Amino acid sequence: MPLKRAGAMGELKRALAGSPRAVLQKLSEVVLELCDAQSAGVSLLEEADGRRFFRWHAAAGRWRELLWATLPRELSPCGAVLERHEALRVPFVVNGATVGTVWVVAHDADRRFDGEDRRVVTELTQFAAAAYERLTSLNADDVLELSRMHLLSEPLPGKTL
User: Fold this and answer.
1) β-pairing, 70-72 with 86-94?
2) Distances, alpha carbon 7 to alpha carbons 14, 70, 130, in Å
3) Which of 17, 41, 79, 124 could pair with 59 as two cysteines, CB 3.0-4.6 Å apart?
4) Whole-angstrom distance, CA of residue 62 vs CA of residue 135
5) pLDDT > 70? residue 69
6) What is the pTM of this model?
7) What is the pLDDT of residue 74?
8) C-alpha closest to that of 37 among 109, 111, 90
9) How many CB atoms lie within 10 A of CB 25?
10) Closest listed residue to residue 102, CA positions, set 83, 77, 72
11) Alpha-carbon gap, residue 78 to 40, rounded angstroms
């Protein structure tokens, strides 16, 4: 059953019990479905040896095999590579700085994103970025406590509340 827009935030909230990467991956999967796209992901800007590049920290859909791939900044999904596809890109902002992009791609020439797609991706991206920011600031004890809380909030198999 297709994911409804109203349930998308719930999907992201459940991912909060996991790691920062789990939030990014869930964001990619949710926007892929909500936007009726063929690929989606989160690319974060990194630097090593004076070289700036994007690393795909999450990927869903047709390009999911490219998870953890790196591309020079100018060849990322935000660059010339996607000129042949319909693409929607939203800034991923952490601690007030743009550190990457959330991207959604339609490989089908007939698919065009609209203002509603942009609104939904922007809203979900802002929530996921805030969650990512908080999760990356947690220490090991915080993560264990979140995991315990998540387990306690899950109904036992075969039991209903």
Assistant:
1) unpaired
2) 11, 32, 18
3) 41
4) 28
5) yes
6) 0.74
7) 64
8) 111
9) 21
10) 77
11) 12
Domain with residue 74: its CATH number is 3.30.450.40
156 within some domain? no
In a domain, 159, yes or no: no
* Average pLDDT over all residues of the chain: 80
In terms of pLDDT, which residue wins out, 58 or 143? 58
Cα distance between residue 34 and residue 117, in whole Å = 8
Tokens describing residue 11: 């999907």
Task: Reply yes or no on whether the pLDDT at 38 is more than 80.
Answer: yes
Half-sphere exposure of 148 (CA within 13 A, CB side): 6
State pLDDT tens for residues 71-120: 776 666 554 334 558 888 999 999 899 998 899 999 888 889 999 999 99
Asked if the structure places residue 158 within a domain, the reply is: no
Kindly list the strands in the beta sheet with 86-94, ordered across the sheet, starting from the edge strand earlier in the chain.
Answer: 70-72, 51-61, 39-48, 97-106, 86-94
φ, ψ for residue 61, nearest 5 deg: 85, -150
In this structure, is residue 56 part of a structural domain? Answer: yes
Residues 6+ apart with CB under 8 A from 45: 52, 53, 54, 73, 99, 100
Q: Which domain holds residue 88?
A: 5-150
Phi, psi of 96, rounded to the nearest 5 degrees: 80, 0
